[in-house]
Amino acid sequence: MLEAGAVGFNLEDGCSDKSLSPIELQQAKIQALMELKKETGLDFVINARTCVYWNQLFDEDTRLKVALERGFAYEKAGADCFFVPGPVPQAAIQRLTESLSIPVNIILNPASGSISDLQELGVKRLSLGSGPVRTIYQQVIELAQETATHDFHRIQQASFTYDDANRYFR
């Protein structure tokens, strides 16, 4: 993947049963990637992700405690960034950014606040995740529902032409 141009790895600690994999296993994965960096001389990003908020594990105080514990462990192992997706409250975001020395990344969601709020909280990377495609799905479903009731107003008012579409595929 690196030879093909990949610039980083996103290591998730979430398991299919919504539990978290052991910290030691995640640290070992990060350390293996650190060795790969040394062996290859390639400078890629190791983005260590915790799914504690994504999977909404524990109560809020415990979530933050677990996120901090994992952030410190992943940082110590050599991670370049710490990714905490999910509905992370702004107070928790601030605590994470103030506590860790590596950049904290989050995923944009209703709990995250505005871009300027996130900048003030110290967030260095923002992921849109599946937000754009979910927005499109919602619009397609709404359009289908309108069409089922013979409401073609939005289709008739659309100004996006075939030429517009083709410009994106040249």
From TrEMBL:
SUPFAM superfamilies, per the entry: Phosphoenolpyruvate/pyruvate domain (SSF51621)
GO MF entry, a single one: carboxyvinyl-carboxyphosphonate phosphorylmutase activity
Superkingdom of source: Bacteria
Keywords, in A-Z order: Transferase
Entry keyword Transferase: yes
Transferase listed as a keyword: yes
Enzyme class: transferase
Protein name in UniProt: Putative carboxyvinyl-carboxyphosphonate phosphorylmutase
Source species taxonomy: Bacteria, Bacillati, Bacillota, Bacilli, Lactobacillales
